[in-house]
Write a structure and sequence with these properties.
With about 300 residues, the chain is of the alpha/beta class. It folds into two domains: about 10-130 and about 285-305, Aspartate/ornithine carbamoyltransferase (Rossmann fold, 3-Layer(aba) Sandwich); about 135-280, Aspartate/ornithine carbamoyltransferase (Rossmann fold, 3-Layer(aba) Sandwich), CATH 3.40.50. It is about 35% helix and about 15% strand. The chain is built from nine helices and nine strands. The protein has a five-stranded parallel beta sheet, covered by helices on one side. The chain has a four-stranded parallel beta sheet with strand order 2-1-3-4, sandwiched between helices. The chain is globular, with a radius of gyration of 19 Å. Bound molecules: N-carbamoyl-L-aspartate. N-carbamoyl-L-aspartate binds near residues 126, 135 and 259. N-carbamoyl-L-aspartate binds near residues 132, 135, 165, 166 and 260.
Amino acid sequence: MRHLLTIEGVTRPELEDLLDLSDEFLNVLDRDIPKVPTLLGATVATMFFEPSTRTRLSFERAARALSADVLSFSPGTSSVTKGESLKDTALTLKAMGADLMVVRHPATGAAHRVSRWADLPVVNGGDGAHQHPTQALLDAFTLRRHFGKLDGLRVGIVGDIRHSRVARSDLQAFSTLGATVTLVAPPTLLPLDTTGWPCDTATELDGVIGDLDVVYLLRIQSERGGVSGFTSLPEYVRRFGLDDRRFRLLRDDAVIMHPGPMNRGVEIAPHIADHPRTLILDQVRNGVAARMAVLFRLMTPEARR
Ligand code: NCD
């Protein structure tokens, strides 16, 4: 694996290898000094052309826990405001010594393009509504840690599927690892065509929620037009929000996940977000270990497969 641009086509053994490595790196993060010298002298560049809290900080934390240096780029304070292109920005960071780039961009395919321009490993940190492979890894890792395996798990991904790169990536990783996935959304927020996707779809949450082991909630992606998918926010909350009544319909051992950022009071009732059966902060913590695994696989030549 030279790049991680999409989770599509990543095989079950490759995924399991990354999850096994993530377990090892989670142990590192539990040590008194949560750091190993593995990438000492290497530089990870993060190029985020869209807002981010978790993904960017998680990659930077992962890089530092492996003793790499970090070059952190934000368009708002950069020469992008003077018209500099994605290509020139990438080549500039490479000339400064970046050994790997993490790219987040609103355009589908942006990370792929950077991988062609700059001759170094590239990780897709989210491209438009297309892919977010490390989110899928950390989510699969979180489920494997909680349930022991994904085989046979019933996962409902609920919300603005149409505009969600998380839904697309998670669906592929979960199904490759043996889970059954149902995409749950109003018809206007489901993808236009899911033919060939390894999932079912449902347009009402109440009909499926009692069968699920995992309720994976998504934010309405208003920046990509998600709000045009329903008539009013109260109507969305009424039909798809995880409130007390729906919580009571859940199986006793079901868990709740969310990639963040959450909109409390919309897809999830404010107090349910803090319930012990949510894995939301586990996802964040596990994400650092999962990204350490990816950086390790892509940056240590002897470890590359
Ligand atoms: C997601 C993203 O950016 O795709 N967030 C994340 O990376 N944790 C989901 C979202 O923005 O709703």
